[in-house]
């Protein structure tokens, strides 16, 4: 399917997201690529990969761990908790800026999606309820273990680790950070009334389940300034069968608590025709980034309409950006898009990472 974006399209207009001005409203969604070194240092190819995609209004990095213990869901995912990590991210931020782009770093803790064979430590979560999923560990596919419920003082430590990783991201030259509150990882697990069975201040009511994410956003905003903080949420679902019985009230409580902080943007991974989207849109006066993906490819026609109406500030696009470094040029020309190669999403090395051709390269090759 091709789509032609008019030169005066709403998606091509600049947009202010906190302290950053994005040159257009087509953002690159966070994409784990599993090319980092075993110690969490990003790959030598990462600067090239991200700089190739600098025409995105904003690049949101792959999920990046805030601590060694938080990095247990997949092998070779990066971190930002050592000087070595930070130095490599500084090269990446510089390469993206040099190419004219803007970049936020997505920060995560994988929670009960972690496996000790990858993280090296016991798996933790809000409650002792396992995700009905497997991890790809060094010794093969293993069921995810029953997590240990975090103690309250451990929650405070993790809040602080988010803060420190955010500080490192800014010191590395990133334009901001996106807190990963989506897709079934730790912060999402706390929001879920299915996975979070706690009876303390972090469980029970929607307000209590919102507390951990809110504390992370508050701590990070206090450290680096609210205009450099985004938050990603996936109301209604995520990997690891995390969900909510009452999605609307869960996320209303979270968004109401976050709203006064005036952060750079809220990033929702959601179908915009759902009541949840309508309810949250009504509560959120700030910039809103939408990613409709998962089962369906992004419908650029729908995104353009939503941006034109002001329902969204920007569209985040994952797989199409992964496979098309020159996505925006292709949309302007109505050109065919490269198909993403699923087999190399998480495979090591340059294939399927830095070798997707631009239109110009296709033309040269076929001349
Ligand atoms: C290979 C791959 C890696 C992903 N990694 C992340 C990630 O690190 N953080 C995140 O929040 N979402 C991640 N996602 C979800 C994407 O950001 C996005 O929500 C999803 O791909 C749907 O959007 P799309 O249809 O535009 O690809 C990943 C998706 C894919 C396909």
UniProtKB/TrEMBL annotation:
Keywords (A to Z) from UniProt: Oxidoreductase
A Pfam family that the UniProt record links to this protein: Oxidored_FMN
Domain of life: Bacteria
Essential cofactor(s): FMN
GO MF, one example: oxidoreductase activity, acting on the CH-CH group of donors, NAD or NADP as acceptor
Family statement: Belongs to the NADH:flavin oxidoreductase/NADH oxidase family.
Name of the protein this chain belongs to: Putative NADH-dependent flavin oxidoreductase
Organism annotation: Mycolicibacterium arabiense
Phylogenetic classification of the source organism: Bacteria, Bacillati, Actinomycetota, Actinomycetes, Mycobacteriales
